[in-house]
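A protein record pairs a chain with a discrete description of its three-dimensional fold. The shape at a given residue is found from the number at the same position. Here is what such a record looks like in full:
>
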Amino acid sequence: MATVLAIETSCDETAVAIVNNREVCSSIIASQIPVHQQYGGVVPEVASRQHLEIINEAIAQALEQAQLDWSNIDGIAATCAPGLVGALLVGLTAAKTLAMVHNKPFLGVHHLEGHIYATYLSEPTLEPPFLSLLVSGGHTSLIYVKDCGVYETLGETRDDAAGEAFDKVARLLHLGYPGGPAIDRLAKQGNPQAFTLPEGKISLPGGGYHRYDASFSGLKTAVLRLVQQFEKDGQSLPTADVAASFQETVARSLTKRAIACAQDYGLSTIAVGGGVAANSGLRQQLQRTAETHNLRVLFPPLKFCTDNAAMIGAAAADHLNRGHTSPLVLSVQSRLALTQVMQLYQG
């Protein structure tokens, strides 16, 4: 089984990990959240510079934590798409350089495939086929996982991703950045039934609604109007109740679509990945509903929900075990469909 050193720099975490098949030997994550908080969101140029400053130390720490040297490493991987181009370039360039210097195979990994593999780190016996619910700041998708590198997108958001909606609503409620954890904490103090908020639905040309696609921009707008109404009336905003009602609506929307999709395609397991997979409201509602339909739901450990290199290493190790490697001329891409993963590999 392959041992891979993996690098993840697609956004605002500088992460390096060493993974043996599906076992994490080391995982280093240097978050840039304190740096970007003052701007209320990620600044791409700042993120790239932070990665440059931290990457070498993170690689050294990963090797030291795993108590391994380069002779123990079978391949070197890095996230190559999708993400912030400048940030991706830092990790990809470091990985290519290490691959050439140490004469190791190089693998470019799709970030979303990494999030699918995050569940494998805590459930090493998990095997396709299963349904993956990917919910993060940039993506909200229902993916039919058929095999390593073989994916079919069954549903997705038509506008804001779930994590993006959390950040925007948190800004409306003056909760700061990142919005997801802030809303999750505050929602525990509020009443999720306090306000009836719209669950975004996608109309079909022939009538009815799409069973799997979602929309969150209308929900965000509804929260904005609610805030404005309280301000207009001169009343104090019940922030905890708004946060709880918003979170409940997002969780209900995602749960309904994931359950319907799994049932329609005869899939007994739903694996959840991405930063929003850490949300307690989603975890509770999806787990509870799935049990009533005899479905199994798997969540990664909280430390592997947000961006990390261990999930990238797990995906790379599976590809390397199958003889897949990437050419050293591989470039970064800000966007790349998950269904095009195998374009990254040769062999």
Observations:
- The longest helix spans residues 239-264.
- The first strand starts at residue 3 and ends at 8.
